[in-house]
Design brief:
Belongs to the RRN3 family. Pfam families: RRN3. One of its GO terms (cellular component) is nucleus. InterPro entries: RNA_pol_I_trans_ini_fac_RRN3. The protein is mainly alpha-helical. It has a domain at 102-136. The protein is 60% helix and 0% strand. Residues 106-114 have low confidence and may be disordered.
Length: 136
Amino acid sequence: MCQLNPLRYCLAPVATAFAGVTRTYQLAYCHTVLERNARRKLATVYGHDKSMPEETAETFFPFDPYLLKISKKYIEANYVVYQSNDTEDYVHSSAEDRLSRKRRDSEMVEEDEFIILDKRQKYLEISKSQDFDKQY
């Protein structure tokens, strides 16, 4: 385990996204570290009223656009713009959400398969076919 624990100082959504990516590509399993950090944070919040260094640290998103105009010419060639990935969102959704989505999708397909035509639709189909027959 790393003594520095960098995930402790990251914003929760950034740390969770990082853990999801590392798990997807089987690089590391960081969710236990995130859980331990959450337990430590709860213990310090309820233990005393002092703010810990990780709570007062200035947070930033490491993928923010690079806006410094003078040094931009040195960084621009190596800078990669962050783009969210749909698979990351899928990884973070719970199994229950995915299951309910699958159920909803299958219910919609079943409803579409068994649509009963009402009288007006049947009448329109009959009249169209009769008009077609009259033309030929």
